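The following block was generated as part of the benchmark described in Methods. Ligand: NAP.
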Amino acid sequence: MAGGGDDAAAARNKMVVLKRHVTGFPMEEDMEVVVGAVGLRVPAGSSTPAVLVKNLYLSCDPWMRGRMSKHDEGATAPAPDFVIGEVRLHEPTHLRVVDSYQTMENYGVGKVIDSTHPEFKSGDLVWGMSGWEEYTLVYQPESLIKINHTELPLSYYTGVLGMTGLTAYAGVMEVGRPKRGDFVFVSAASGAVGQVAGQLAKIAGCYVVGSAGSDEKVDLLKTKFGFDDAFNYKSETDFAAALKRCLPDGIDIYFDNVGGATLDAALLHMRHGGRVVVCGMISQYNLEEPDGLRNMLCIIPKAVRVEGFNVAGYFHMYSRFEEEMARYIKEGKIAVVEDVVEGIESAPVALVGLFSGRNLGKQLVALARE
Ligand code: NAP
């Protein structure tokens, strides 16, 4: 075990704090970038082992929206609400300077700066849950995963080789269970999860159609990700008709990232024995009253399986997934498109942009490149 001490230098630590809990669509102004300080060693005398990580890339994910609301006590929520940042001002600057804070958090990729945990040493590259900040002191290092494929871009561990890639893999392979020749439909198909889900279904020998919110994204689906067909749902007047046009024989697997009207239309069009992989419902996350579904009845005569899943239940297969996905990337079977913004100041606007489709591919924030 190495590290731990008081004699280390301190560094500036810019971070994103939540200013107020959110109802409706999140706005950049709901968050604030503040400046704190961090010692560059794990504090001496800490009762539990800890790892100090310099964050290189932070991931922007829709699930963060759920944590920006204030839920009633006992309400079902995927993770605890973010705590409103406790900001105490030192001095007024263009950024606020704090000595007490609570950052937002999400998955990130980083380099270990110091460690008192036996399994991590300075210089290790890791990914896992971290603060939305430049440096994070991780007190539960079991949640960090060492990066094996350093020959691939490290940023991939925020996406295709990280949580969203594992989500696509678990959703397609474990929940959807594709068979060669299946007809597959993926919504939000050019995004982090969707682009990988569609390509995995192609690898499994399926006919794959995607929907996305711009002509540029549709073009990407067909030219970069190898989808067989795709359409821009924002310019279609009749969503069900678009599905019928692209998938005249119906859908065997619907990989649902958006819920709402898209899910309802897809239900009408499922084939006998079809599977609806309920991954996400981004169209519902900012609504006070969720949309209802009208077409659930269809699942009875067609014996359709509708199954939700949470990636948290699939981390036991991460090693297998990492090897398989790294191989696909190297073989050119999986293409990756990232939308990278620079600097932590860009994080709030990048997060908000997910809910209007501003991102083109996996949205992430680059803080430092080693
Ligand atoms: P993403 O697709 O990279 O980004 C979000 C995309 O959603 C936007 O670019 C936009 O694309 C689309 N969108 C936004 N608002 C929409 C609306 N009202 N109606 C239809 N589409 C809308 O995000 P991601 O990280 O890959 O996540 C995709 C989904 O998977 C999300 O629902 C997320 O919550 C879910 N997810 C679930 C798990 C799990 O464990 N089950 C894990 C990770 C993610 P367009 O321009 O194409 O509209």
